[in-house]
Amino acid sequence: MADNVEWCRATLQECPPGHSRLPLSLNNLATSLQDRFKQRGALSNLDEAIELHQAALALRPPGHSDRSTSLNNLATSLQDRFQQRGVLSDLNEAIELHRAALALCPPGHSDRSTSLNNLALTLQDRFKQRGASLDLKEVFSLYLPLSQVSHPVTRGDLRAAKSWTAFAEELNHRSSLVAYQTTLKFLDQYIAVLSSFSRHFNMVREVTSSIAMDAFSCSVRRGALTTAVELVEQGRAVFWAQLARFRTPLDELSVSSDAGSALAEEFRQLSIDLRKVLDAIDVSPEDQSSQIRHLTVQWDAVLSRIRTLPDFSRFLLPPLFSDLQKAAEDGSVIIVNASQYSCNALIIMVDQDPVHISLDITRAEVSELSSVFQSLTVHAGSSDHEMELNKIVGVLRKLWGRVVGPILQVLRKFIPRGSRIWWCPTAEFTLLPLHAAGPYEPKSHNFSHFYISSYTPTLTALIRARHQASRDASAQRFVAIGQARPDGGKELRCVAAELDVVTQRVAPFLPFTTLAGSDAT
What we know:
This protein is of the alpha/beta class. The chain has 20 helices and seven strands. A hairpin with a 2-residue loop joins strand 2 (about 345-350) and strand 3 (about 350-360). Helix 1 (about 1-15) runs antiparallel to helix 2 (about 20-40), helix 2 (about 20-40) runs antiparallel to helix 3 and helix 9 packs antiparallel against helix 11 (about 210-220).
C-alpha cells in the first residue's frame, strides 16, 4: 500500500500544470490514499485524498468525459469523512456532488443505476441523521423507475435494486414488494446473459443472498400469498439451476424443435456480445449506452420470437401461480420458508388459493437446529448409539413443536390422512428431516403416521419431473440402492435383507436393478 502511494506521488510530480495526465494522476493518488485510510484509519490520508479529488474535479469542467467519475469519487471520500467526524456539511456536499453526477447519466446511460444508487444511499444517511421526509421521498423516487428498466441488466442495476429492497424493508415502505419483484427480475436476466461461470454466480449470490426467501416473507406479510409462491420459485430456480446443473429454460428451448434450437443459438450469441459490453462497464468509465441500445433491440426481437413458440410464452418472465399450482396435482405441496424477517409455511393445493401457517420460530433458531442435526448425523455410529438417538429425537421433537406440528393441524383440515404430500423447504429448512418430526412419546403419532412425504427443490422441478415421467411411461425402470458400510459409520446389517424384500416386491412388475456396496457409491 505504501509503495503504491509513493509511486502515485512520483507519477504526479512528473505532471506539471497543464499536463494532459495531471487529472488522472491526481485521481490515482487520491484513490490510493483512500485505500490506505481504509487499511490504517489515519484521517490525514482521507483529508489529503479529498483535496486531490477536488483538484482533479477542477481540471474536469462541465463537458469533460471523466467529470462524472470525479464527482462520484469526491462525493464518496466526503461520505467516508462524514462517517468518521459526523460533520453534516460533508454529507450535504456529497449529496450535491452525487446529484450532479446523476445529471450526467440520463435514462438509458449504462452508469445510471450505479449513480442513482450512490445518491440514494447518501440521502439515506442524511435521513437517518435528520429524519427529513423530503430526503425519504427522494430516495424512493430514485428507486421506483428501476422497475421499468427494459435494457439487459447490469451489475449496477442489480446492486441498486438490492439496496432498494433493504431500505424498503427497514422502513416497511409500501414499495418493498415491487423492490423484490424488480430485484428477482434483474437476477433472472443477469444470470441468463452472464452464463454460469463461477465468478458471475458468486457475485450474484453475494448481491442477492437470501433474496428469494425474504421476498416470500414480504409477500406473506402483505397478504399476497400467490405472489409469495411466484417470487420464491423464481429466485430459487436460478440457484438450483446453477448449483445442481438443472436444465435451464434455454436448455429446454434448445431441444424443443429446430426453430427453438436456432433461436437458442441466436440468444446465446447475443448473450456473449452483451456479456462483453456489460463486463466492460465494470472496468472502464466509458459510456457503453449506444452499444447496449443496439444489442437491446436485437435482444428484444429474439425474446419476442421465442415467446411465440409453444410452452415458451413465459421465457425469462416470472412464473405464474396458475402454472405453479399444477405441482399439487398428485399431492399438495408445502413450502416451508425461513427468512430473517419471518418464518412461514404455505400449503399449495390444486383447487384453491394457498393456505398460510405462521411459524413461531426465527431463522436463527432454524439455523441452530439444522447445525445440531447435521453435527449429529455426521458423527452417527461413531459413539454411544443410545445417546446419539436421544439427541436426534430431541431435535425432531423441537421441529415438531415449532414447525411441523402447527402445519399438521392445518393440513388435516384439507388433506385426507394417508395422502402423499411434498415438502418444498428453503434456507436452513432444507437440512432438516421435516417428514420425521414428531413428539416421539408413547401413544402419540409422528408426522409419518399421517402422511407420506416426498421432497422437491422447486415446484417447477416437480412439474417437469412428472411431465418427463409421463413421456417415458412406456419405459419405466426401478433402481434400488443400498450401502451397508457408510463412510466413517458402523455397518448397517439389514441393508442386504431389505434390498431382497424390495426385489421380491418390485421385480415381477418392472425392469429392476440393484446397486449395493461399492457399486452404490
